[in-house]
Design a protein that fits this description.
Shape: globular
Strand order of the largest sheet: 3-2-1-4-6-5-7
Mean pLDDT: 91
Structural class: alpha/beta
Number of helices: 8
CATH class: Alpha Beta
CATH superfamily: Spore Coat Polysaccharide Biosynthesis Protein SpsA, Chain A
């Protein structure tokens, strides 16, 4: 089994080397191999130049000509990936690659086509005490998405989405920014795939540490939930 780690990157010079080292050191299933697909979304803080000097046989780096957003970077990564299973991994250290076995287990065991890593499911994961309004907004967006998808997720907006090659086949991602989260959820739901959630840790960061999502992305997410569930 080949596992593709999809890493969208924009202005992450402080964390890019650390996250790549963590991905390389992550525990993978026996007899499984991995590849890392990095897509730099036209970084301007030195990340792009650092990646151009970086070399590793398991890492392929692609560069966007202009800044387009996380959704566009992930769509490019999926296009370039060869894996039987794909994991979306942010480059900002909020999510821990050591938890790949938890994320992969339902797929390896044959139960799931898609697995979401939930920050709100409980379990033993470590969680930073963080923004209340972000938490409330996340719950509201997840609830609206659940109502239209007829799902009972706890964390639609999570970064950690794992899916088989067959699950993503035929799905065209059109959202350029963070609208990818409700879009891909709606499209997984419409394919009637077996979707599971597992509890994960979450090491959230502040805006002065590089966090990029804003309230405007929350408004956009509402539009995307309605668009991709009712009109697409």
């Amino acid at each position: 089994m080949l596992i593709s780690i999809l890493v969208p990157i924009y202005n992450e010079i402080q964390t890019i080397e650390i996250i790549l080292n963590k991905i390389h050191a992550a525990p993978y299933p026996p007899k499984a191999d991995y590849e890392i697909i990095c897509v730099d979304d036209h970084s301007k803080d030195g990340t792009r130049e650092w990646l151009q000097k970086y070399s590793h046989k398991k890492v392929n780096v692609y560069y966007q000509d202009v800044n387009q957003g996380k959704g566009a970077a992930i769509a490019r990564a999926i296009k370039e990936a060869h894996g039987d299973v794909m994991i979306i991994q942010d480059a900002d250290l909020e999510y821990d690659p050591n938890e790949y076995p938890i994320l992969l287990a339902p797929i390896i065991d044959g139960h799931a086509d898609v697995v979401y890593g939930s920050r709100f499911l409980g379990g033993t994961g470590t969680h930073r005490v963080h923004f209340f309004w972000h938490y409330l907004g996340n719950k509201a967006l997840t609830t609206l998405s659940n109502m239209l998808c007829n799902l009972n997720m706890t964390d639609m907006e999570t970064c950690y989405k794992v899916f088989t090659k067959q699950a993503i086949e035929g799905i065209e991602i059109t959202s350029k920014r963070f609208g990818i989260e409700p879009e891909i959820t709606a499209k997984f739901s419409k394919k009637h795939l077996k979707i599971y959630e597992v509890p994960i840790s979450y090491y959230g960061r502040d805006y002065d540490e590089g966090k990029k999502i804003t309230w405007k992305d929350g408004v956009s997410a509402i539009y995307c939930i309605i668009k991709y569930n009712l009109f697409n």
